[in-house]
């Protein structure tokens, strides 16, 4: 089956890899891609049924400039370095990237905080930072609230799509020889003669080196070899997403002045033309709890009004929550032929390309031989490119394959051909949400109300399974139980 190994039942045969990466989020995915540039046998182990199922699928999608992190920290170094790498990376992987700039908006009483952020950013090596105010600020953002008088302008700040980047990075790594094992939850790590045996209920995999990039569960994985769970604080961030009719309502990412709880609740465009509000910052003990709360929604409404006026809240089409680690600095800790990554909270997405290079260098220091892979191909075709084509290009494509002429998702303009590509390309979509993350089918105004039945049929056909076997997001999330006239 295309798109990576799906471990549903039975045992995995023991196999020796050079490097095993635990966790198929954006950091793990970019590490896999970086290592696939070398002649190494690599595998990615993901406990869920798809990639990008943790923090990488639900965050602010901001490529931060780097003025927020404390100077001298690993977080500051890798944020600025990663931000500089992002545009070229996204171009190679066919992922949307827009350098729109950011404004940290403040009142006159908060100007001193902005000046402190400016100086911090300069120490971190962020280019182009300056304070804007008056008519210049209003020209940049006419919809700023009346109480906002000044802002720190960060022109290198950008936006992207984190789950599309994760899919693309892992897909590119797989195209260059890496293997993906889904539904492979690592529950133990045992040293062996040549490295480690990574244990799961579905079998074992042996590897000379391993990378613990398990996100919020990285601390738990660390304890398998006698280390400490240093993951610490987990916070939930709730978001509200507005219809694409709101495109252009703000032109930059707009932050409030930061507090001890983080960067605050922002207002930002998305790369697909929506308007995103959030996140909240609520401490939680459950590292998998992504529920929304009435209190969170009310907080978003209250705090976004302080920076941006007249937001059309009635155009909200969905809300969601993500989880993140919140600590002063990243932990990237080399061990005995392993590297543990913990506390990779914000700006983890921004730093991810640089983290990949940093981990590569640590592995080299441990003795991993890095012989260039002469066949490495850095480029990948995007999963949903039809909307970016000219009419002539579309007509040519439809003549080649009529499936691109059948529009399945009318809200987003996604064709059957693009959905089929998403199922067949590495790492292939295997459920409704997997198609959504790769193609945006179901992400529009109706939130899948019209297109979901057609997507179900395409999934069943392409995977060779019954409609009743198609799930929303893996596991037991079945959508259909049978035909209505057969059920009693």
Keywords:
disordered N terminus; Arc Repressor Mutant, subunit A; FAD/NAD(P)-binding domain; alpha/beta; nine-stranded mixed β-sheet; D-Amino Acid Oxidase, Chain A, domain 2; 22% strand; five-stranded antiparallel β-sheet; 488 residues
Give an account of the 3D structure.
This protein is α/β, with parallel strands linked by helices. The chain folds into three domains: 1-96 and 157-232 and 327-379, FAD/NAD(P)-binding domain (3-Layer(bba) Sandwich); 102-155 and 239-310, D-Amino Acid Oxidase, Chain A, domain 2, CATH 3.30.9.10; 386-469, Arc Repressor Mutant, subunit A (Orthogonal Bundle), CATH 1.10.10. It is built from twelve helices and 23 strands. The strands form five sheets. Strands 1, 2, 3, 10, 11, 12, 13, 20 and 21 form a nine-stranded mixed β-sheet that branches. A hairpin with a 5-residue loop joins strand 16 (266-269) and strand 17 (275-278). The longest helix has 20 residues, at 74-93. It is globular and about 65 Å long. The chain starts with a strand and ends in a 25-residue tail after the last helix. Residues 1-11 have low confidence and may be disordered.
